[in-house]
Amino acid sequence: MRESRPVIALDFPTFKEVKDFLELFPSEEKLYLKVGMELYYSAGPEVVRYLKKLGHSVFLDLKLHDIPNTVKSAMRVLSDLGVDMTNVHAAGGVEMMKAAREGLGKEAKLIAVTQLTSTSEEQMRDFQNIQTSLQESVIHYAKKTAEAGLDGVVCSAQEVKLIKEATSQDFICLTPGIRPSGAALGDQKRVMTPADAYQIGSDYIVVGRPITQTDDPVAAYQAIKDEWTRDWK
Ligand code: C5P
Fold first, then answer.
1. pLDDT at 117
2. Stretch 70-99: mean pLDDT
3. Which H or E element spans position 17?
4. Which residue in 178, 187, 228 sits closest to 208, CA to CA?
C-alpha cells in the first residue's frame, strides 16, 4: 500500500514553471505529483491532463468542502480528469464524504483533511467551539472519514500511530512536513525526516521546497526517495 515515490508538491504559480521543473527529470522517471490550489486555479484542468499524459501520477489537493450534491458532481469531473488521488475536508460531514466517494468512484484514492496543521488547539476551541484536545478532534474526524468509506487522511507524521490504531493499519496516512536532516524548515514547524516517517508508518510523504527550491532538484528528489525507502523490507 505504501507509495515508494515521495509525492512532490508542485507549488508553482504558473504552468511554465511546472514544465521547466519537469524537464529536469529524465522522461522515463515517472513521478507522483501534487497539484494544489495555486497551480490548479492558475493553470486549470489542462495541467492535470498534461501531467497524466506524461505518465505521472497526480494527487489533486483541492480540499473540497460544500453540500454533498455539489461535491459529488465536482468529484465526477475530477474522476474524468484521471486524478490518482484527491481530497475533501472531513468537516463537510459523513454525507458529504460519502457523496464525494460516489462521485469519484473507486479508481482514485480519496482522503480527508482533519484539522489543518495551521490550526492551534486554542483556535479550535475558540473559533470552532470544539472543547476537546486537538488530537481528539483529529482522531474523531479520522474515524468518521473511515466510516464514510474514504481511504485515509492527510495528517502530521506525529499523528500516524494514533490514527491507525483508531481506524485500521490499512487506512492511508499521507504526511507533509517532511524535511531531510539539515534542510531548511521554511514555515513548517513540526517536521520529520523521510526515514522517521517510514518508521512511524506514513504511507505517502509529501515534499515541496526541499526538492523544488534547490539547485539540483533531481538529486534532492533521489536522496529523499533513497532515505524514504532505505529500511523497506
Ligand atoms: O514545501 P513543503 O515541503 O513545506 O510543502 C508541503 C506541501 O504540503 C505544501 O503544498 C503544503 O501546502 C502541503 N501541506 C502541508 N501541511 C498540511 C497539509 C498540506 O504542508 N497539513
1. 86
2. 98
3. helix 15-22
4. 178
Residue of 19, 34, 63, 189 marked active site: 63
Q: Whose CA is nearest to atom 12 of ligand 1?
A: 36
State the Cα–Cα distance between residues 35 and 221, nearest whole angstrom.
17
How far lies 99's CA from each of 84, 107, 122, 139, in Å?
Answer: 18, 15, 31, 21
* Phi/psi at 205 (5° precision): -115, 140
The reported pTM is 0.96
Residue recorded with cell 523490507: 233
Q: Are 86 and 113 in contact (CB under 8 A)?
A: no
Domains, in order of start, for the chain: 7-228 (3.20.20.70)
Please tell me the distance from the alpha carbon of residue 157 to that of residue 99, in angstroms, as a whole number. Answer: 28
Q: How far is CA 110 from the centre of its chain?
A: 10
* Ligand 1 binding pocket includes 194 (Cβ within 6 Å): no
DSSP sequence for 137-156: HHHHHHHHHHHTT--EEE--
C-alpha cell at 46: 489542462
Q: Is 177 in the pocket of ligand 1 (CB under 6 A)?
A: yes
Give the whole-angstrom CA distance, residue 110 versus residue 145.
10
Q: Is the CB of 36 under 6 A from ligand 1?
A: yes
- Cα 188 to the center of its chain, rounded Å: 15
Place of cell 459529488: 72
Q: Which pLDDT belongs to residue 8?
A: 98
